[in-house]
Amino acid sequence: MRSAAAITFAISASLLILGAASAQRATTPAPPPQTTPATATPAPSRAPAAAVSAPACSNPNALGVARTVEIDTTGGPGFGFEHFKQHDFLRDKEVILTFDDGPWPTTPNVLKALADECVKATFFAIGKHATYYPEILRQVAKAGHSVGSHTWSHVDLSRKTLDEAKAEIEKAVSAVKWALEGQGQEAPFFRFPALRHPPELVTYLGQRNIAIFSTDMDSFDFKMRKPDQVVKSVMAKLAKHGKGIVLMHDFQTATSQAVPDLLAQLKAGGYKIVHMKPRQAVTSLPQYDEELVKEQKLPTVSQRPTTSVVRDVQ
């Protein structure tokens, strides 16, 4: 994500952390853990990721998913022609929709729009946000979308030491895994904040068998305040490129409001949606799973999600 937004939320004591929501590029969140992740890389599991039974499509005129592809992430392949040129698997007028920086209260609007058109997308979640709104991230997985990670606190990893950067990657993997518990599994999909790819971290992700996703076209929706601007941006770039991986942000209000019209225009323009699924689930590192547990503050008896504890009455 490339926008700037600093939002502080007081979260339920049953969540793992207290703190400010990560900034959208210009503001640096609290420093990541200074520990060094385990050097031994787990062997890639060949078992398929757990299947998620998405709701059946009830719209006979839906845009739908034209093709589903399975991604073997062994060795950390890179996708998105802005940075990686090797894998060109999309056909003319095929589109992959990706959303960064969730989960957030705006995410359910995106999910509803996608569900209305029976479309599947890929979501790159920020680790902190996954701990703020685990119930929303579970909704993403339950709907049949793929869920990857986008660092723990959305910092520019090119400005971090190698150990700090690895911790940002690994803690996000552990946080997303924790949030999705019981509602599908996390994909070994990763996107760098600001699309900055330090070579040593590209190598590290390859060793971890985690695929790297850049983009074919960035909507730059974080610069926009009106839904129609987001739609025009995406459609103009698709008209130019003909196909591609589209980067948007479910964190952005304008984007969450733009998705219904965007899907309508994609359908009218004859575009086809491709959904990416991983061949296997990601393997988190125990060190970072344990760190999340240790960071729990003042645990309470109630484990209900916020949406069942707090509701509008007027």
Shape: globular
What's the β-strand tally? 12
Q: What structural category arises from helix and sheet content?
A: alpha/beta
Separation of the first and last Cα atoms: 35 Å
- Total of DSSP H or I helical runs spanning 4+ residues: 9
**Helix proportion of residues, in percent?**
25-40%
Q: Cα-atom Rg, whole angstroms?
A: 18 Å
Instruction: Describe the sheet with the most strands.
Output: 7 strands, parallel
Name the average pLDDT. Answer: 84
The SSE string, one letter per element, is: EEEEEHEHHEHEHEEHEHEHH
Sheet-strand content, in percent, reads: 15-25%
Assembly level: single chain
Uncertain stretches? 1-51
Layout of SSEs?
Blueprint: E1 7-9, E2 19-21, E3 67-71, E4 78-79, E5 94-100, H1 107-116, E6 122-125, H2 127-132, H3 134-142, E7 146-149, H4 162-179, E8 189-190, H5 199-207, E9 211-213, E10 217-218, H6 227-241, E11 244-249, H7 253-268, E12 272-278, H8 286-294, H9 306-309
Parallel strand pairs: 3-12, 4-9, 5-6, 5-11, 5-12, 6-7, 8-9, 10-11
Antiparallel strand pairs: 1-2
Helix pairs in contact: 1-7, 4-8, 6-7
Description:
This protein has 314 residues and is α/β, with parallel strands linked by helices. Helices cover 31% and strands 15% of the residues. It contains nine helices and twelve strands. It has helices at residues 107-116, 127-132, 134-142, 162-179, 199-207, 227-241, 253-268, 286-294, 306-309; strands at residues 7-9, 19-21, 67-71, 78-79, 94-100, 122-125, 146-149, 189-190, 211-213, 217-218, 244-249, 272-278. The strands form three sheets. Strands 3, 5, 6, 7, 10, 11 and 12 form a seven-stranded parallel sheet that branches. A three-stranded parallel sheet has the order 4-9-8, covered by helices on one side. The protein has a two-stranded antiparallel sheet with strand order 1-2. Helix 1 links the parallel strand 5 (94-100) and strand 6. Helix 6 (227-241) packs across helix 7 (253-268). It is globular, with a radius of gyration of 18 Å. The two termini are 35 Å apart.
